[in-house]
Design goal:
- The structure holds two protein chains of two kinds.
- Chain A is built from 15 helices and 20 strands.
- By secondary structure, chain A is of the alpha/beta class.
- By secondary structure, chain B is α/β, with parallel strands linked by helices.
- In chain B, the strands form five sheets. In chain B, strands 14-15-16-13-12-17-18 form a seven-stranded mixed β-sheet, with helices on both faces. A six-stranded mixed β-sheet of chain B has the order 9-8-7-10-11-19, with helices on both faces.
- The longest helix of chain B is centred in the N-terminal third of the chain and has 21 residues.
- In chain B, helix 5 runs parallel beside helix 6 and helix 10 packs across helix 11.
- Classes of the chains: A alpha/beta, B alpha/beta.
- Chains A and B meet through helix 3, helix 5 and helix 15 of A and helix 3, helix 5 and helix 15 of B.
- Chain B: Keywords: Oxidoreductase.
- Chain B: GO terms for molecular function: oxidoreductase activity, acting on the aldehyde or oxo group of donors, NAD or NADP as acceptor.
Amino acid sequence: MASFTSKPPKIEIKYTQIFINNDWHKATNGKTFPVINPSTGEEICQVEEGTKNDIDKAVEAARKAFHINSPWRTLEPSARGKIMRKFADLLRRDIEYLAQLETLNNGKPVTNSKMDIMGAAACIDYYAGWADKFTGETLPTTSDMFLYTRHEPIGICGQIIPWNYPILMLATKLGPALACGNVVILKPSEETPLTALYCAALIKEAGFPPGVVNIVPGDGPNCGNAIVLHEHINKISFTGSVEVGKKVQEGAAKSNLKRVTLELGGKSPLIICEDADVNFAVYVAHEAIFHNAAQNCIAASRTFVHSKIYDEFIAKSVALAKKRIVGDPFDPATQQGPQINKSQFKRILNYIESGKKAGAKLECGGEKANDKGYFIKPTVFSNVKDDMEIAREEIFGPVMSVFKFDSYDEVIERANATNFGLVAGVLTKDLTRALKFVQELQAGSVWVNTYAAMKAQAPFGGFKQSGQGREFGKYGLEPYYEVKTVAIKLLSKM
Amino acid sequence: EIKYTQLFINNEWHKATKGKTFPVINPSTGEEICQVEEGTREDVDKAVEAARKAFDIESPWRKLEPAARANLIRKFADLLRRDIDYLSKLETLNNGKPVGDSKGDILGSAACIDYYAGWVDKIAGETLPGAHDQFIYTRHEPIGVCGQIIPWNYPIMMMAWKFGPALACGNVIILKPAEQTPLTALYCAALLKEAGFPPGVVNVIPGDGPECGNAIASHEHIDKVAFTGSVEIGKKIQEAAAKSNLKRVTLELGGKSPLIICEDADIDYAVSVAHRAIFTNAAQNCTAGSRTFVHAKIYDQFIAKSIELAKNRVVGDPFDSNTEQGPQINESQFKKILDYVEAGKKDGAKLECGGERHGNKGYFIKPTIFSGVKDDMRIAREEIFGPIMSVLKFDSYDEVIKRANSTSFGLGAGVITKDLTRGLTFAQRLEAGSVWVNDYDAIINQAPFGGFKQSGHGRELGKYGLESYYEVKTVVVKLI
């Protein structure tokens, strides 16, 4: 196999400490943890390890920042929007550096990092616009009453984000929380804390008052768990696996009934109908699974192809997969970087073995792509059956599983026969067929003749065990405010 | 330096088709500033042609991603702020308001534009529950070519209030600034071009009412007209719209807004609120608090303190940073206001202070207070648009609400009281588009503004401000 070496440019790591109250802190327990470059498997640097005591410090700072008379609480709504927009501008200003840092830590190609940063800035901009526009209502009632609702910030919001889109996830969480006037304690993934900490410095530069946004790097069991169980955190938002998501919901219930929103995994179907243009379908299906080395909650990991175009689809998909350039993410020609770490790398290769054992046909790929780092070749399995492990479980690796179908009614049932329900895609030219799929697929987002059509204004989230609550759009605000109903009685005499 | 004096169509500068120009006057001196090209029907036709092209479904403007449209709109706001020093001087030169006020207007205008930029990617139709074999939804589509006619009292701000929602919804615009104050609108046209708006999206045609404004109101291919000005002209606009192509009409017209000061009000606070409620912008304000109702128990104190405040109000050169009040806009208004002073005296109101010209150049009038005003006097019923405070006494709250409401206007109303029930009951019962409690003229970009009764119809600002700038299309798809 062709071998390559990742050559990252010299990137200065400026921030490795815990960000609380617009200050940098060492860990209370005095420990640090290593951050790895997945392109080489080598350590980039050490980062302060936040644990329960650091979360307590952050909560105290956040509390003060949320006091009713604090600078943050007394800010004019449009001024709040302005500070958010300033943060978005700073993301764009520092895009060159940030993109390289993101690629160094996460392994995605630099062009993808740049796209993510532009998307993150656009998301922040979108929510900045909502700050002075989300409204309560005045309600009709008897003439001697004044009845209305207020949409108030919830308070301290714990946010735990994953490693697949570090900057984009940070923006997705901060946007609605800050637009509604909350204060935040964010724990970036222990795999990818570096860009979050740089963003913390930008948040301070943008002018957020101290304590409004706090960023505490650390692991799940000692740091994330402290957030989940904290008696004085009012809400938690978690993006990650179903397994941990369930623990988050349990922990919230056992402690103080903090409000919970979850964005979890998926095993999303892409259904390619007989009237689809095959070249277009092959291209869409390829991106739908392999983008971001398939480390994507919305990855189209079940590709259903109508029997009439099945053979052509397989042949062309294999050809495209073989051409996909896996390599050094700092090389502008690279399309696919490494998987995030050794553990994921091993897991994916195990799934590939499982697919072979279960009798699926390995069409291409199926092995590592380099000696160093965690690179895996784009892999295509054909003849996959619905009950195989690779058909049912979320792999989070570059494995395309292709299923054959004849009947549209049946394929909808098969597509829906899963506990997941994040997204689904359909390729067809027929109007009624498309709209019926839309009606019947059990997924939070359904995409017709496209895939991964994510927009800041379109709500996104899971049916069933893919999560609960929505991010993006106006709906994305809902988990971030509490509704207070006010009734004022007008005593009879003026 | 006056940079732009021509018509702005299709991102280009044009001379008037009829070859005429008109003078623009500096109200502080009465002298001419410059000549500006005079737009008439033929120029409006040219603008409509350019606007229609820019609105074609395949045009750059129609195809812009919403977030990109928002960025353009925000860029315009940034340019307003960038050029605030020059623009505020130009506004003061042409309108006469103190430079500090011009700056405040420009910042407010930029904030309004920013506010509407934020709405662009949030204007949502709905999907509606229907039979299982139906897909029903609404689209909020831009109306098309919007004619906008604005007054001279807040030239830049009125332009921003009109541009914001119209552009947010994806429309194209033909704006006619007041013939008294075209200069800052033309400068802003250059900024729109600099911001990157495609040609034809915004067109600015200076001209008068009868030849230019009327051409807009009666044009067969303008889809909507928004007018801010007097009730008299507003009615003509609505007629012309009806007689031509039933273009949609929104009107922001005059007012004779009451400010009611209750017995429990803090007198000093009440006096300061009442003072600015009438005298701000030399009282050239559609929401001017031009009927000040004061409870009998605090009446004498109120009068005495108001007179003192009025006498101390600094009237003078608007370029002097000490000046609080500049001139009235022109000779015609100047004369009209002095006529009202005479009318007040003749009808038996007591002239407490002011009531005459200030200085001997330009159109300055001294802050004037009449006490003992009765509801049926002309100064109590008609919109003066000049610095005359009319104070009326009352005893009973039920009665004062009736008196406050007995007008065909209904734009703004204010109440000053500490009592919870009283404040909220006034809010319920006053017939005005905006009711301010313990404040006056609290204009906020997210709060809708507009008139009850003959003060106009439709709302500007807030989410409501968008409603007059989109058409609702309902779509039903049958699943066969």
